[in-house]
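Researcher: I need the complex structure. Ligand is iron/sulfur cluster. Inputs:
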Amino acid sequence: MTVIAPDKPQVSTDPLDLEAINPMLESQDPAGICRWASAQFGGELVMTSSFGAESALLLHLATRVKPDIKVIMIDTGYLFPETWQHMEALRRRLDLNVWVYRTKNDPIAWLGQNGEGNASWRNDVDRCCNTNKNEPMERAMAELRPSAWLRGIRRNQADTRKEKPFVEWSKRYRCYAVSPLLNWSTRDIYLYMKQNELPYHPLYEKGYLSIGCNPESCTRAVKPGEDPRAGRWSGTDKIECGINVNSNSLDSAGL
Ligand code: SF4
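Model: Output:
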């Protein structure tokens, strides 16, 4: 079942003028956009993190301006053990305020109940993502009811992200989505990570440049020259898990 956030009072006295704000933010670096978001939304700003390949970057940027920001982590039941290790290491290093939202399903039982006989492969990735990833995310946003949410998407990651603005209204979560990293390249990220001695996910050096769940159907190492996200749902036309799709999971194409 999809959980929709109930109507809530507007925290901002007026809706944001996105046509004015987005061009202004184009000239800001990610730290400047995080500062703007913290000043604009205060305690009602949260962030999501997959604790994936380069997640330390946005966690570091966000906690420089808002040390106690709530960090939403979605536990599908199928994450790599290394992801949990990475989360714990970053939680200690950055003193993170992590809020884990878990699938309601027992991961092994769910596979058996849904005809998924091979734990290292998903036949129906859309059904699995919808139930085990999108539902906890929607539950998190319905419970926490933030005014805005920081996320780590970049324009050069996928065609679905090329036209994204820095700030947009999310009808699905009924809050603003703020994307400070939109214009950064892999090299920009590398330089920031190096300068601040931030760790990549432990699987990064093994060729896992974008990291989600551990079935091979969902995350594999990429080969030299491949797009960093080529290892996600490889061999299918699926690009997004659905968390960053700006509509209800039940009516999102491809979900
Ligand atoms: S990424 Fe794969 S294992 Fe994870 S929720 Fe989606 S289909 Fe399931």
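Model: Summary of the prediction. Confidence is low (pLDDT under 50) at residues 1-11, 248-255.
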